[in-house]
Amino acid sequence: MIIGRVSGQIVMTINHNAYDGRKLLIVDRLGPDHEPSGGYVIAIDTVGAGPGETVLINDEGGGAQQVLGCPGAPIRSVVVGIIDEIG
To answer: What is the CATH superfamily name and number for domain 2-82?
Structure first.
């Protein structure tokens, strides 16, 4: 699992069928200090997250495919939650 902050969205005109109707988000990875650590992930949104929100990402292909119900699809990362607060 990865904690990150949504920084943008990707718009595609041509894509794999598994991506049809799904929003792709650019998510900056956050370090232990809750600040961007320099890396990013492109993940499918399943929770309606938007720019600036802190999210939880499943970054393991098999798990992401299970969440979306798309076995064998070319999917690795999926946003599975919006984080309200980190204590």
So the answer is: EutN/Ccml (2.40.50.220)
